[in-house]
């Protein structure tokens, strides 16, 4: 399923994709279920090494999340996949494992405090750019434009809050669970995003013309 969705996204020219695969909260699941998922992740990352589509399309694979929470065998498979695709720059697939938005911000705060303690950073110099530079270190993630939430869940589940909420990303909710996700669902999500962008541009033009925000809300 995941491979098909990635193929569809590439067809549409989507260069950056993040798959939220396992949250920090998921560690509360049954231990056997967690181990089964970790074994599946290990198999998928190992398969990347010989996946012709990855190398033909120059897709860089990266993990997003707290690596200290993962077992060594899974972490080794992840690092091997990252190293094998490190020089690729046509597409970027970010796999969020052991990830939580609040956990990410906590780690960034610790890093900032450590730099202040070591007098490498002044508290007065801390701004949004400095904070962002301490999040998802080394991944160079762009702002989130669109979140697709499957399974009829009406929540974004603590997903990349700095890049998503701070960028006012669009959110598309759909009924199918991930295994049943179809290409038409992806196309509908992209269409919703496109419509939102067009409306936003109209609103900005009306505001630039001197109209109030109340006037702009009724643009058709």
Automatic annotation (TrEMBL):
Transmembrane intervals: none
Keywords: Transferase
Record Gene3D superfamilies: Decaprenyl diphosphate synthase-like
Keyword Transferase applies: yes
EC annotation from Swiss-Prot or TrEMBL: 2.5.1.31
Cross-referenced InterPro entries: UPP_synth-like, UPP_synth-like_CS, UPP_synth-like_sf
GO molecular function, one term: ditrans,polycis-undecaprenyl-diphosphate synthase [(2E,6E)-farnesyl-diphosphate specific] activity
CDD domains: Cis_IPPS
Biological processes, Gene Ontology terms: polyprenol biosynthetic process
SUPFAM superfamilies assigned: Undecaprenyl diphosphate synthase
Class of enzymatic activity (EC top level): transferase
Pfam family, one: Prenyltransf
The protein's name in its UniProt record: Undecaprenyl diphosphate synthase
Organism: hydrocarbon metagenome
